[in-house]
Design a protein that fits this description.
This protein has eleven helices and five strands; from the N terminus they run ααααβαβααβααβαβα. By secondary structure, the protein is of the alpha/beta class. It has two domains: about 1-45, no CATH class; about 85-265, 3-Layer(aba) Sandwich (D-Maltodextrin-Binding Protein, domain 2), CATH 3.40.190.
């Protein structure tokens, strides 16, 4: 009878060991057998420190929240410190616009521009997209004078054409220096020069009704003759200067400033 009772007791002990908490097991291994101490420690863990419990129960939510907060702060700082440009101009054509040519374009157009947004700074954002049509690609292959020492690959050319279309649809840029072949495709979407000026210009500088050959304008002839603007000569002879109408997605003030600059350039005359 005693052996049976011992066996039952041992089985109960084994079951108790399986069911005991981590805290109880730790105290039992340390030789502490007072149940009150076990209960006291469990109570301490449950009650614990508010911040410890908060972290223990919600640490992933806190981590994700902190990441989102930091991202939001970085985004807000980026927006607040982003330059506010008075003007956006884009070149689209076969030329790779190098640093020297870009500086000449910046200089020339800013000479006619002003602080349109009234923030105390005159800033111009110039972008370029290099695209070659089939004829230009063949010519590059023959002359081996292309921007990268060869002909633009098909995927590069296709990507550039997509970029041109996306840029025009975005409404960010209104004023373009555009390759004649590209201009011919989009000329119907540009603003009529005579209507803008209220008069007709010399037909010799006109590229249809909605653009002018940039290198035939008095503005170009004057600016390319200066030291800072001489790299304007790198632009192809058939480059067309044109202005898009205001799109729904386009900022009204930005379009007005682009139109003002466009009219100034077309109205510029060299003193004789």
């Amino acid at each position: 009878m005693e052996e049976k009772d011992k066996k039952v007791a041992n089985e109960n002990d084994i079951q108790n060991v399986k069911n005991e908490s981590n805290a109880a097991r730790r105290l039992r291994l340390l030789g502490v057998e007072n149940d009150d101490k076990i209960h006291d420690e469990d109570a301490t863990i449950k009650k614990g420190n508010f911040f410890q419990n908060l972290w223990y129960q919600h640490k992933w939510a806190i981590i994700i929240g902190a990441i989102l907060l930091v991202t939001l702060i970085i985004f807000c700082v980026s927006i607040a410190t982003q330059p506010k440009y008075d003007m956006y101009i884009s070149y689209t054509g076969p030329l790779y616009v190098d640093y020297e040519t870009k500086n000449a374009i910046d200089y020339a157009f800013m000479e006619m521009s002003k602080d349109y947004n009234g923030d105390g700074e005159e800033l111009l954002n110039f972008a370029s997209i290099t695209y070659q049509n089939e004829e230009q690609r063949k010519q590059s292959a023959e002359e081996m004078k292309d921007l990268y020492g060869g002909v633009l690959q098909d995927h590069e050319n296709s990507k550039a054409l997509d970029s041109i279309r996306s840029q025009m649809l975005s409404g960010v840029v209104a004023l373009y220096l555009m390759d004649e072949k590209i201009y011919e495709e989009y000329s119907s979407k540009m603003m009529n020069v005579s209507q803008l000026l209220g008069k007709d210009l010399d037909k010799s500088i006109m590229a249809g009704e909605n653009g002018v050959y940039f290198k035939k304008t008095d503005f170009y002839l004057h600016m390319s003759g200066t030291e800072k603007g001489k790299a304007l000569k790198n632009l192809p002879d058939d480059t067309v200067l044109c202005l898009m109408p205001k799109l729904v997605s386009m900022d009204k003030e930005l379009h007005e400033s682009s139109k003002d600059l466009y009219i100034k350039i077309l109205s510029f005359e060299i003193e004789k």
